[in-house]
Amino acid sequence: MTDRAPPDPEAVALFAFKVWGYKQGEIVSLMVHLGDRLGLYRALDGCGPVTPAELAAATGLHERWLREWLRSQAAAGLLASDDGGRFELLPEGAWVLAREADSLAFAAGAFSGAAAAPETVDALADAFRTGRGLTYDQLGPTAAHQTERMLGPWARLALVPVLLPALDGVEAKLAAGARVADVGCGAGVALRTLARAFPASSFHGTDLSRLAIELAEWAAADEALTNVSFSVARAEDLPAGSGYDLILAFDCLHDMTFPDRAAAALRAAIADDGTWLIREIKSSGDWRQDQRNPMLAMMYGSSVSVCMSSALSEPGGAGLGTLGLPPAGVQALCTAAGFSRVKVHDVDDPANLYYEVRP
Fold it and tell me: Of 7-21, 45-59, 290-304, 313-327, which range is least confident?
């Protein structure tokens, strides 16, 4: 099998798009279940265009949760929305999603929320009522493993050969011996990849998920890596004056309850000539422009079920959600924390942008 010529890249991309389309359907099905279970389709039936605040007033549910759910439904084409601010269940949609008593076309009852464990679905439904989201560990023991499987190929195959050469001076520092921190490291696949590639450097990963850190420690031991360590901690816990040469924050700032506090702590912990490397989901912050993304429904659905949920898992949480940090948001966050330079890198990663941030 290893001797076979690589397939046509366009054919691979088209096949990947087909597969991710099925994943998007899985997540949309969970959103349909929540809409049926919480009576949202019935509340929308016959109301015309409504705002999240109006739907919250009608249902007694939390506006922030409703806004993300409404956008997920509009991105999936199940609700109509021109601006991402007002949403309408059209008559044909009501016949399929709301009219259980009098429509032979009613289908919402067929969706059970099977994209998540039953106890997780129950907790998500309750979050619409309380406003309080779930931590990653509350999603169950498989969440960290699934995230590792999803993000692992890019970290193992592209992080060192594709991204690092695009950064100013970072590769040379790592080769010579640098101090590296990874906040929100999950199961540590990116950090372990760097630790193997740059044995002269030292690496430390932190995450709030105990389950993810346990997986990271097991994997590092299995790979016999001696220059990497992990601990359960918040990004805000990174000690000031640590002088880190490189700090990573991959796909995690939008999940944090207080990303502003995290950014301020990282500014205090980074060396004067250090680099903060951020990975965040590609988004523009503009509803109409983001609708060009064929996986937008998956992203908003994932936000409800995972990212925004995590970001609202503590009182006063920012609740940014999956698409909550477009380039302007990253720039504002870094500037407020005291960083002076932000350079955006688009390295042919279909889902993410990378930000090279300097003190």
Answer: 7-21
Question: CATH number of the domain at 139-283+325-358, please?
Answer: 3.40.50.150
Domain definitions of the chain by residue range: 9-131, 139-283+325-358
Q: What are phi and psi of 114, to 5 degrees?
A: -70, -5
Edge to edge, what strands does the sheet with 352-358 contain? 228-232, 202-207, 179-183, 244-250, 270-281, 352-358, 341-345
Q: Which residues pair with 88 in a beta bridge?
A: 80
What CATH number has the domain spanning 9-131?
1.10.10.10
**How far from the centroid of its chain's Cα atoms is residue 253's Cα?**
8
User: CA-to-CA distance for 331 and 257, rounded, in angstroms?
Assistant: 18
Instruction: Please give the helix or strand (H or E) that residue 220 lies within, else none.
Output: helix 210-222
> Which residue type occupies 156?
R
- Distance from CA of residue 2 to its chain's centroid? 33
Does the reported pTM lie above 0.90?
yes
CA distance 29 to 18: 17
Which ranges of 227-340 does DSSP label H, i.e. alpha helix?
259-269, 287-290, 296-302, 308-311, 327-336
